[in-house]
Inverse folding.
């Protein structure tokens, strides 16, 4: 759980990487001449949160200096707290045609253009070292390690990122709010204190009682902020979970709760993940807070963890 009050996003500025209409049209016109890469589902989630500011202060996938610093110290190279490496992995064939100075067209699963990346760095990652640093293990029974070893391409790439559009979804569009939209909704409703609840599971009656009591105790309203991107293998599908959230939302006092879906690709990185969720949830405009969630520690077992909320706008 998190008690949120108005505060700046992590890093002080809410990042917006969406190109203006004329600029986006120019990118789309030039894109057929560039090498392309169809983003994976995880990469599309990362792109969306980079573009809309959900990963503020990041303006692209990490470069080598930031990547090494995050792995070693949970901070960017400039000292800013950031515990989980956000990287764009590609096969060697892509690096061969999209080295530094080239522009890479980043595409959706259907081939539609999502963004351009003016490449500045490419490097071959030490995935075993990353697993030890981030997850504390190289055991593939851990879902984060399993993804790193079996589903991650060997090269990392980064550069100047410009988004043409955000990924499109066929469902629950009314609940897919960007950090800026959540902040605007809080302002429109006159909400100055907000309790945020983060989950990747369905909500039950006990969860509702917990959130009601927390909000009452804090004299706050409620933001229900579930993850609907990539979660743990075996988790209940987001379409079922969102229907659960909709059903339980009707049982809150009128005007008391707001549902906003988070298109996050979870890494299951234990304590690092908990801190990461806290940072992400400051972007909507409410300050340090604590969010309750489950995350996978450096063994295949799971523990409960608590964190603070910032990027969707929060603090305690």
């Amino acid at each position: 759980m998190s008690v949120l009050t108005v505060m700046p996003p992590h890093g002080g500025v809410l990042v917006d990487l969406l190109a203006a209409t004329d600029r986006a049209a120019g990118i789309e016109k030039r894109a057929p001449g560039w090498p392309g890469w169809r983003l994976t589902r995880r990469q599309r989630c990362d792109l969306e949160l980079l573009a809309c500011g959900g990963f503020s202060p990041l303006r692209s996938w990490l470069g080598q200096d930031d990547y090494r610093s995050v792995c070693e110290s949970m901070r960017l190279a400039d000292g800013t707290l950031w515990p989980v490496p956000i990287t764009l992995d590609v096969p060697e064939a892509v690096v061969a045609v999209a080295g530094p100075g080239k522009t890479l067209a980043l595409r959706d699963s259907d081939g539609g253009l999502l963004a351009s990346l003016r490449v500045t760095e490419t490097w071959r990652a030490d995935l075993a070292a990353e697993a030890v640093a981030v997850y504390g293990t190289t055991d593939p029974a851990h879902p984060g390690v399993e993804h790193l070893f079996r589903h991650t391409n060997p090269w990392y790439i980064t550069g100047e990122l410009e988004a043409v559009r955000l990924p499109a979804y066929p469902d629950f569009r009314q609940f897919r709010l960007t950090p800026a939209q959540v902040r605007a909704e809080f302002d429109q409703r006159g909400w100055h204190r907000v309790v945020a609840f983060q989950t990747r599971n369905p909500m039950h009656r006990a969860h509702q009682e917990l959130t009601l009591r927390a909000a009452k105790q804090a004299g706050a309203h409620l933001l229900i902020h579930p993850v609907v991107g990539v979660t743990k293998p075996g988790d209940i599908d987001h379409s079922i979970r969102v229907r659960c959230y909709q059903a339980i939302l009707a049982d809150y006092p009128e005007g008391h709760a707001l549902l906003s879906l988070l298109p996050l690709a979870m890494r299951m990185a234990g304590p690092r993940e908990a801190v990461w969720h806290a940072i992400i949830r400051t972007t909507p405009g409410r300050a340090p807070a604590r969010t309750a969630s489950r995350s996978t520690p450096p063994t295949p077992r799971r523990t409960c963890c608590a964190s603070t909320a910032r990027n969707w706008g929060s603090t305690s």
